[in-house]
Design a protein that fits this description.
Mean pLDDT of chain B: 91
Low-confidence stretches of chain A: none
Radius of gyration of chain A: 31 Å
Shape of chain B: globular
Number of domains of chain A: 2
Order of helices and strands of chain A: HHHHHEHEEEEEEE
Low-confidence stretches of chain B: 1-8
Strand order of the largest sheet of chain A: 5-4-7-8
Strand content of chain A: 15-25%
Strand content of chain B: 5-15%
Distance between the termini of chain A: 67 Å
Structural class of chain B: mainly alpha
Radius of gyration of chain B: 25 Å
Largest sheet of chain A: 4 strands, antiparallel
Oligomer: heterodimer
Order of helices and strands of chain B: EHHHHHHHHHHHHHHHHEEHEHEHHEHEE
Distance between the termini of chain B: 84 Å
Amino acid sequence: MKGHRDLELAAAGSIVCALIAVVIPWEPVRIVAALPLALFLPGYGIIAAAFGSHRLALPYLLMLSLGTSLAVLALGALLLNYLPGGIRTESWALLLTVVIVLTCYAASVRRPQPARQQGARHRPYPRRLDVVCGLVAIVAAIAALILASTPLPAGGAVGYTALWMLPHRFGAQDAVEVGIASAEHSPQAYTLEVQVQGRKPNRTIQLSLGPGDERVFELPVSPGRPAGRTAVVATLYQRGAAKPYRWVRTWLAAGGSAG
Amino acid sequence: MARQHVGVDGSSTAVIALCVGLGLLLCSLADALSRQTLDPSQVLFWGGVLLIVLPIVYRLSLREPSLGEGLALVATLVLSLYVVKVVRDPFLFTFPDEPIHAFNANQIVDHHHLFNANPILPVTAYFPGLGGATSALMTLTGMSSFGAGTVLIGAARLAFALALFLLFARISGSTRLAGLGVVLYAGNSNFLYFGAQYAYESLALPLLVVVLAAIAEREAAPASRLRSWAVPILLGIMAIVVTHHLTSYALVVVLVALAVVHRFRSDPKPNPWPFALFAGVAALGWLLIVASSTIGYVSPVLRGALSAILHTASGETAPRTLFHASAGSIVQETPTLARLVSFASVGLLGLGFLAGVGQVWRRGRKQPMALFFSIAAVGFFGALLLRFAPAAWETGNRAGEFLFIGLAFVAAYGAVLLLRSGPWLRLRRAALVSGIGIVVVGGAIAGWSWDTQLAPPLRIAADGRAIESEPLALARWVQRNAPGGRFAAADADARLILAPGGALAETGASLDIKGILSEPTLSTWEEPILRQHGVRYIVADRRQLATDVVRGYFFSVPTSSAEPLLPLAAIHKFDRIPLGRIYDSGRIVVYDLKDHP
């Protein structure tokens, strides 16, 4: 590949990007590395190899690189599906790197050695007004995205509270997990009652939750529990209200599991 | 290194960029007001869309842009309109097919292989191109299927813009016409939202246009370059075949038609018949060997469409009323002015077609693809008629997305005709710019319900904290507490249970779940049939909107009328069995079929 700067960059870049994608744990860094590795370089290498000595104009190169890269991704998964290991970070990184390096090598073989470029290149230099307009445009677009991803108050939306109950999942027998999650608009006070087999409340809990808060209780139900399957009912009241707000029910078998 | 000012073109590009940025901000602001349930006028939103579109059309109308500038303009347009979709849905996939495909991508990443079953749309599992490509981005970046899918469709739309521009430019020989053609394509009713959703067609259609662009370039290339162009064409064809059934069949039709036209014209240009043959064999092979269930999926839809056309044409069935919500529906109807804009856009496209088709015949008839586009343009107006047949409108809507490529090309000829030098040029230019603005806005109005053009509240702030809608909270709960469980749920709930819930969900007509969930009583056979099919959990949702795959994901926002709810008996019937009632958030209750006395 010596002498073909674009191919050298593509091949070396693919190796660096693949290593970053596999090794680095930070998502933003991996995104920066993985996007060219997946969405541009495979197509660039394939097109460079296919066209050999003929250099495509930039617009065609961009279109074909992007389109061919998308095709490689769609087909690459099919190939990985039948290879040992299947579809994983490492296999994707390896496949894309192999495609890019091999096609860049093939392109370098098919291409004649480039002539050394002479003279200074003229690059357009934007005016100050253009720079200002461009910056404002970028700021506006970023502001649009930030605004879109910012949760805003919505008084017209109906809030709610969720109550759930499951047999205790971590092996503790004769216990249930009861969760209460508030998605109300303001802090709320609740009373939680847990009854075993219809008897008087086994447990009563007073609690307050703010919007977005969740509380999970591990509640033993064994004291006074009759033999066999036991109905456990949790009822949630809004503080001061007599009418149940939410209720859930499960049956505990002797081993503590439901059903 | 010498410095050189960009000049007038640079300034106009900067001003266009500024308008686009501000347009996006306006759209985002309109969405923000909508998420706050402040019911803003949609003027702000459509103003933002026009601020993106009109400066680009104006620039294209001034003079022939260079290839690079034209490309930059259409790329800016298409990506900006995609961002309009992204800012509407910045947290989660909420378009009807998106959770289904996100589930497929998640399954691929979780299980490390393809072809995992999809309970809602089983056929999607046999076209793994989209899920496979998304899995690459998910595994390499660490992004969720939402993030990876959003980036992937963005890249596909960029490829679409570049390819369509270069295709039109090659056939017409004019970058201005090509640019106007791409802008006109944005007037396709599916362009702004439905066609931008994370779904297999959104990846396959851009690949189809890339293949067509490469074929057009190959026809113009010297003989020594024919093999070079064959590489991206073959790769593109294979990728389309594994990505989307209908697009692959459309590709076969296009290539066969082009091959036939070439044959009868004794064209000296290379006949694409080898590609037609390759695409035909690949699509048929994939259908027979891998995706045979596609026949059972597609044929009832086409049969239903055909039957609806015949019944509507014979007067047995009343024609569908456009922009009309069904009786008793809570869906807000499209305002009269918006309907007029939408009808005007079709009228303007018709004018563009009439003005352009003669030009295509005079100037482009030697190009087989130009002739094919003219036929497709006629086909588009035929597909429009399908919108009047109740069971065929969706078929017409989907077909329109493909046929519109031809219409955009022909209408662009008509648009350029309006810009010929002569008297009243400024006025004609202003008319053209306004007309294309109406086409784009009218198309978007026709393609998506008026009441859901802006973002409904999904994640909102309360007392300084973020809270999520009731069905989304259920999906999060499922993700934490019942991953991999099998649910029976209404359509919208089921989609969220798939993604982000990560569990399995049956819905709709499958196992008569729609009837089981909505009826006030339970027949004796219904509970056993759910158990026999491995369903563990039943999601009883009182919201009538839970069956609406467009509106069912969001916070309930009562308007002047009461929130439409199913009778309480629809939920209480499960209490009487009795079953374990393990989750209750008011409107949504989850029952466990394995949990009983």
